[in-house]
Design goal:
heterodimer, A: alpha+beta, Aldehyde Ferredoxin Oxidoreductase Protein, subunit A, domain 3, 6-stranded mixed sheet, B: 8 strands
C-alpha cells in the first residue's frame, strides 16, 4: 500500500524497459523519493562517475504518499549526480507528473546508459516503450509537451521534459513538467540531455491505495486543518505566494543584491508580491492572474501571471501574451535583485523563458549577476558578450541573455556554464557566489547566520531547501531565533536538515513544514504505509538519508574544504540594514555542526555514527 | 430540501482534491482517472474549471437508456446508474449533451455523478469552497449577493 512496490528500469543504450519489485527492506529504512532513490543510486553508481557519461544514472522517484489525498502529495524528485556540482543531486517538483507516475504503477523510473539518438519514454500503465524524439529535439519544453499530447491524441498525458538548454549542455538545466513546474536545481536536466532523453510522458489510471483508509482520511483531514489555520500556509502563501518574502527579507537586510555586493535592494518593492498585485497602466490588470495549486495541494502558493502586452519583451510576440507560471520569490530575487533589475515585466519574461527552455532561474540569475560584476570591473568586455552591455540594472541585457541561454547560443552558452566555471574562465573565481559549484539562493548569510551553515553543508551545493532556518530566524517557526547570532545554529541546521529529508522522502511538499512538524506527518505515513512509522523512526530516516548523501559526496572527492563560503560573505561585512558590520560566522558554527553530526573534524561520518544509522 | 452542486471556477486552484475524494468514494483507491468530476485547466488563461453532471430534470441519459438502468433518486434528484442493469451500450454517453456520463472499460459499465446519496465527497473535500452543495432552488444566491453588494456600493458612492 502507498508504495506501488514496482520499479521501471530503462536502459537507454539497449532500448529496454523492465519491471522489478521495489526493495521493501530499503523502503522501510529510506521511506521513498529522495531517501530511497538515493539508496538505489549510491548502490549502483560509481561516485567518481562523470555526471555527463552514460555510466551516470538518473532516477525519477515518487514518495509513498504521492498520489494520495494528503495535502501536497503529488511530489516527485529527480536523483542523479549533478552536472552543475558533481555532487549528489536531488531536485523536487510538484505539478501533476508525480501523481501520474504513481497511478501508472511505478514508485521509480531508473534511467541507465545513453540512447543512440533522441528518444522519449512513453508509459501507458503497464506498457512502457522508448519512442523516437528526433522531431522534438531542438524544441522547447512547451512545444514538446504539446507535441506528445497531440501525437498520442490524449490531453490527459502528463509530461516531464527538457528544453533546448538541456540539450545544449547548460549546466543548470531543469526537468520541467506541466509547463512550469520544475525539478530545478543542480543540472538534473543537463544529465537527461546527455542521455539523449527528451521527455517522459505518462498516462496512469491504476489508482493508489492506503493501508488503513479510515485512519488515513482522519490524519489527512487533520493535516489539512492545520495548514488552513496557519498564518503562512493558510493566508500568506495562497495570497502572496513565496513572494510574500521579498519586502520582509529586504528589511531583514538579507536580500543579496548585485552579486552579494549589497544586502538590500532599492528596487525590492518593484519586484515584490505587492507590485505583482498592482494594476498596470496599459490595461488596468495586475501581473498576477491568480494563485494555483499543484496536485492535491490545499495551500496553492503557485503564481499565474501575464506580462504587460505593451512591454518591449512581448509587444511583437503574441506567443508570450499568455498566462503562465509567474514569479516565485527565488526567481524574482535571482532575476531581479541579484542583477539589480527592477522591471517586473522583464523578470516575468525571463522567468517564462526559463520555464519554456528548461533552466534554473536561481543559478541563471546569480550567474548573470556575477558576469555583470566582471563586466563592470572590466574583466568581461563587449567582445566577450557579443555587444551586450552587461551592466547591473539592465533589463534588456537580462532578457537578451535569457533567450541566448535558453538556446545555448553566443554569450548565453558561457552564462550556461554557471558562475563557478564562468568566473574561473575570466580569472576571478572569488566572484562566484556558490558552494560546491551551485549558486546561492535568495538569503544573504550575513543577515541570516544559520543560512551560511545551511549553504556550506548542503549536500547538493548551496541551497535553501535543505534546511530552511529562515523559518526560525526570520519568521519564528517553530520558534524565533536571532538571525544575527551564530550561537545555537549548528543544532538548528541539523534539526532542519534531518526533518526536511523526511518531507522530501514522503511525497509531500516541504512548504507544509511551515505548519506541520513530524508530529503531523507521522500519523499520515503510518496510516498509509506498511510498517510502523513514529516520529522517532522518521527522524532516524532523515538523519540516515543525510549521512548517505554525505558519504556519496565524500567518496566523490568532496572534503571539509568544500564546506565553505565565498570570502565575500566571511570577510566583507554587510554595508546596510540590521546586519551592518557583520560577516557570516561559519568558522564558529562548522566544528560544532560536525560534532553534533557525529562526524570527524574533517567532516567524515565516524564508524560509530554509520553503524548507529545502519549504514 | 433538494440540493445541487454549485461550482464557482473563480475559487478553484486546480488541486484535484475533489477528484481524489470522488475516486476514493467510488473505487476505494485514489485515482483521478476514475473520478466523476473533472477539473479542467485552461493553462494559458490561468483558469481552473471543475465540471460534472448537473442532474438534468429531463435527463437525456435516462431517457436514452434502452434497459432502464438509469433511474431518478427522488430524494436527491440524482440520476443513478444501476450496474446490475447497465449493459455498457454507451448510448447514454452519446445522448448526454455535456459529456458527463462516461464508459469505464475496466467494468464494462458507464459511470456518472450520483451525488453520493446526498453527501457529495467532492464538495466536502474542496479546500476553497469552489464546489459547494446548496439549495437547488438558489444556486444563484452567491452571485446575486455579490452583485447586490456591488450595486449597493455603486449607490453609496453615487
Amino acid at each position: 500500500m502507498a508504495w506501488a512496490k514496482n520499479i521501471l528500469r530503462v536502459n537507454l543504450t539497449e532500448g529496454t524497459c523492465k519491471n522489478e519489485p521495489l526493495n521493501m527492506e530499503w523502503a522501510d529504512k529510506y521511506l521513498g523519493q529522495r531517501g530511497l532513490a538515493t539508496k538505489y543510486f549510491v548502490e549502483e553508481v560509481d561516485p567518481k562517475v562523470d555526471p555527463l557519461s552514460p555510466d551516470n544514472k538518473l532516477i525519477m522517484a515518487t514518495g509513498p504518499l504521492t498520489g494520495t489525498c494528503a495535502s501536497t502529495a503529488g511530489r516527485y524528485s529527480v536523483i542523479t549526480k549533478g552536472a552543475l556540482t558533481g555532487a549528489i543531486a536531488c531536485s523536487n517538483s510538484g505539478g501533476f507528473f508525480g501523481n501520474e507516475m504513481k497511478n501508472a504503477g511505478y514508485d521509480m523510473i531508473i534511467f541507465e546508459g545513453k540512447a543512440k539518438s533522441p528518444v522519449y519514454l512513453f508509459i501507458d500503465n503497464d506498457d512502457a516503450k522508448l519512442v523516437d524524439a528526433g522531431d522534438m529535439w531542438g524544441t522547447s519544453v512547451w512545444d514538446t509537451e504539446d507535441a506528445i499530447k497531440q501525437k498520442h491524441q490524449d490531453p490527459q498525458i502528463r509530461v516531464a521534459s527538457i528544453g533546448v538548454s538541456g540539450e545544449k549542455g547548460v549546466k543548470y538545466a531543469c526537468v520541467v513538467n506541466d509547463y512550469h513546474r520544475a525539478a530545478g536545481r543542480s543540472g538534473v536536466g543537463t544529465v537527461m540531455g546527455a542521455k539523449n532523453l527528451k521527455a517522459v510522458a505518462i498516462r496512469g489510471t491504476k489508482g493508489v491505495g492506503v493501508k488503513d483508509a479510515g485512519r488515513f482520511f482522519e490524519a489527512a483531514a487533520a493535516g489539512k486543518a492545520v495548514l488552513a489555520g496557519n498564518a503562512v500556509t493558510g493566508e500568506g502563501l495562497p495570497a502572496f505566494g513565496t513572494q510574500v518574502l521579498m519586502n520582509v527579507i529586504n528589511e531583514t537586510g538579507a536580500l543579496p543584491t548585485r552579486n552579494h555586493r549589497d544586502v538590500q535592494f532599492d528596487g525590492a518593492h518593484s519586484i515584490s508580491a505587492e507590485a505583482m498585485a498592482e494594476p498596470r497602466e496599459s490595461d488596468g490588470k495586475p501581473n498576477l492572474v491568480r494563485n494555483s495549486a499543484c496536485f492535491g495541494c490545499t495551500i496553492a502558493c503557485g503564481r499565474i501571471s501575464t506580462i504587460d502586452r505593451t512591454h518591449y519583451t512581448v509587444a511583437e510576440r503574441p506567443q508570450y501574451q499568455i498566462a503562465s507560471g509567474g514569479l516565485e520569490y527565488e526567481a524574482a530575487w535571482a532575476l531581479g535583485a541579484a542583477t539589480g533589475v527592477d522591471d517586473l515585466d522583464a523578470l516575468t519574461f525571463a522567468n517564462f523563458i526559463c520555464n519554456e527552455q528548461g533552466y534554473d532561474p536561481i543559478s541563471f540569475g546569480a550567474t548573470v549577476g556575477a558576469a555583470m560584476e566582471m563586466y563592470e570591473d572590466g574583466y568581461i568586455t563587449d567582445k566577450d558578450t557579443g555587444g551586450i552591455e552587461l551592466k547591473f540594472g539592465s533589463a534588456k541585457a537580462l532578457t537578451d541573455i535569457a533567450e541566448l541561454t535558453g538556446r545555448g547560443e553566443g554569450f548565453g552558452a558561457e552564462i550556461g556554464l554557471g558562475s563557478k566555471l564562468l568566473c574561473e574562465k575570466y580569472g576571478h573565481p572569488e566572484l562566484s557566489m556558490s558552494v560546491k559549484g551551485q549558486e546561492f539562493p535568495a538569503y544573504d548569510s550575513r543577515g541570516i547566520q544559520g543560512m551560511g551553515l545551511t549553504y556550506a553543508t548542503s549536500n547538493r551545493g548551496a541551497c535553501h531547501l535543505r534546511s530552511y532556518t529562515v523559518a526560525s530566524e526570520v519568521l519564528g517557526i517553530p520558534e524565533k531565533t536571532d538571525p544575527l547570532v551564530s550561537d545555537g545554529k549548528a543544532g538548528l541546521v541539523k534539526a532542519f536538515q534531518d526533518a526536511t529529508a523526511v518531507f522530501d522522502s514522503a511525497g509531500i511538499c516541504v512548504f507544509t513544514s511551515f505548519a506541520w512538524s513530524l508530529e503531523d506527518v507521522a500519523p499520515q505515513i503510518d496510516a498509509a504505509c506498511d510498517g510502523e512509522w513514529s516520529v522517532e523512526k522518521l527522524l532516524e530516516v532523515g538523519e540516515r538519508v543525510w549521512n548517505l548523501e554525505r558519504n556519496f559526496n565524500n567518496a566523490a572527492g568532496f572534503t571539509a574544504a568544500d564546506d565553505k563560503l565565498p570570502e565575500r560573505l566571511v570577510k566583507d561585512a554587510a554595508k546596510t540594514g540590521p546586519a551592518k558590520g557583520l560577516t557570516n560566522q561559519l568558522d564558529k558554527m562548522l566544528p560544532e555542526y560536525y560534532q553534533l553530526r557525529g562526524w570527524t573534524p574533517d567532516g567524515v561520518p565516524t564508524n560509530e555514527t554509520l553503524s548507529r544509522l545502519g549504514l | 430540501m433538494q440540493k445541487s452542486l454549485n461550482i464557482d471556477p473563480e475559487k478553484c486552484t486546480g488541486c484535484l482534491q475533489c477528484e481524489l475524494a470522488c475516486s476514493y468514494d467510488n473505487e476505494s483507491v485514489f485515482n483521478p482517472a476514475k473520478s466523476r468530476i473533472k477539473v479542467f485547466s485552461f493553462h494559458e488563461k490561468g483558469r481552473f474549471v471543475p465540471y460534472t453532471c448537473t442532474q438534468c430534470d429531463e435527463a437525456w441519459c435516462m431517457h436514452a437508456c434502452p434497459v432502464d438502468a438509469i433511474t431518478l433518486d427522488k430524494a436527491t434528484g440524482a440520476k443513478i446508474v444501476h450496474d446490475n442493469l447497465c449493459v455498457g451500450c454507451k448510448v447514454c454517453t452519446i445522448a448526454c449533451p455535456f459529456g458527463t456520463v462516461n464508459y469505464n472499460a475496466d467494468t464494462g459499465k458507464v459511470v456518472k455523478c450520483d451525488l453520493c446519496e446526498g453527501e457529495p465527497e467532492c464538495a466536502k473535500a474542496c479546500p476553497t469552497d469552489a464546489i459547494t452543495y446548496v439549495d437547488a432552488n438558489w444556486t444563484g444566491l452567491d452571485k446575486m449577493r455579490a452583485w447586490a453588494e456591488k450595486t449597493d456600493a455603486g449607490q453609496a458612492t453615487a
